[in-house]
Specification:
4-stranded antiparallel β-sheet, WD40_repeat_dom_sf, 2 helices, repeat, WD40/YVTN_repeat-like_dom_sf, about 350 residues, 2 domains, Methylamine Dehydrogenase, Chain H, globular, mainly beta
Length: about 350
């Protein structure tokens, strides 16, 4: 019986490399540098930590603190600087490579849930529970522009000129960043329940949206392409339905990963509408995940995500782990569509 128990609670069933030392509390975001294998993690213990990944080894590099839990992170496109935002209602800019001090470069009236650096505009965008998006020139104290949102910002994805913002009440707001001061389009999410994550298509033609109901929507922006839209179920086990917490496009093959509160991650191909690879479930949820710059590393966090409340939090096995998986080409390379009918 002991063997069965240890088998079912194997903390690392996919034999991934573990990043050490472990963060002290649940993770909220993971982001790789666009220029190197530097990995940043933000956590509910108010910390922003950075590791250098060399082969199967992780070297802790540095860390900074916020006054309250940190919810999001993003890198500048040159790989020198990290941005982090959280419950202290501010965004910090950390010149990581130069060893400089972190400084506050953005402020909101509520927790900062999402941030992204937009290289084409040399601006930082931050989305908050104060129902605004704010654009920042980091050399100036006041925002370059404040954009009202219909509700609290829950998710944000930028692939210039496309920006997708998911808010409370299932609003999806689409921006063309060539004209950032006006909404390009606003729709209701194609999913029936609360939005958890969004990801803009690499070709800027649409976006993925994931929700708390274990479902992903594949949505095109152009009305002429609406026939290509579909939704699919994932991160479900029998009658148990789990949140889809993270959506990441592979930077080379443009397939994508989902990660969920069931402790599983999967790789998918939206064009052929098939799952490329399903991985073994970890014993705790996966709240966040990301690919590195060339897609050779998939990082994912495993920890309690509070989706089942404080009463289901077990401090004795509440370890927070970050794992690295090296995708094989067959796991992430799209498959040709199966032709139907005669040629």
């Amino acid at each position: 019986m002991a063997n069965l128990t240890s088998l079912t609670s194997n903390p690392n069933p996919n034999k991934s490399f573990e990043v050490l030392p472990n963060p002290g509390d649940s993770l909220s975001s993971l982001s790789f540098s666009p220029k190197s294998n530097l990995l940043v993690a933000t956590s509910w213990d108010n910390q922003v930590r950075c590791w250098e990944i060399v082969g199967s080894n992780s070297q802790p590099k540095a860390s900074i603190s916020h006054d309250q839990p940190v919810l999001c992170s993003a890198w500048k496109d040159d790989g020198t600087t990290v941005f982090s935002g959280g419950c202290d209602k501010q965004v910090k800019m950390w010149p990581l490579l130069s060893g400089g001090q972190a400084q506050t470069v953005a402020m909101h009236d509520g927790p900062v849930k999402e941030i992204a650096w937009i290289p084409q505009m040399s601006l930082l965008v931050s989305g908050s529970w104060d129902k605004t998006l704010r654009y920042w020139d980091t050399r100036q104290q006041n925002p370059a522009h404040v954009q009202q949102l219909p509700e609290r910002c829950y998710a944000l994805s930028v692939n210039y000129p496309l920006m997708i913002v998911g808010t409370a009440d299932r609003h999806i707001v689409i921006f063309d960043l060539r004209n950032p001061q006006a909404e390009f389009k606003r729709i209701q999410s194609p999913l029936k329940y609360q939005t958890r994550c969004v990801a803009a298509f690499p070709d800027q033609q649409g976006f993925l949206v994931g929700s708390i109901e274990g479902r992903v929507g594949v949505h095109h922006i152009d009305d002429a392409q609406q026939s290509k839209n579909f939704t699919f179920k994932c991160h479900r086990e029998g009658n148990d339905i789990f949140s889809v917490n993270s959506l990441n496009f592979h930077p080379v093959h443009h397939t994508f990963a989902t990660a969920g509160s069931d402790g599983a991650f999967n790789f998918w191909d939206k064009d052929s509408k098939q799952r490329l690879k399903a991985f073994s479930r970890c014993p705790l949820p996966i709240p966040c995940s990301t690919f590195n710059m060339d897609g050779s590393i998939f990082a994912y966090g495993v920890c309690y995500d509070w989706s089942r409340g404080a009463e289901n939090h077990n401090p004795t096995n509440a370890k927070t782990s970050i794992y690295l998986h090296s995708p094989q080409e067959a796991e992430v390379k799209g498959k040709p569509r199966i032709a139907t009918g005669r040629k």
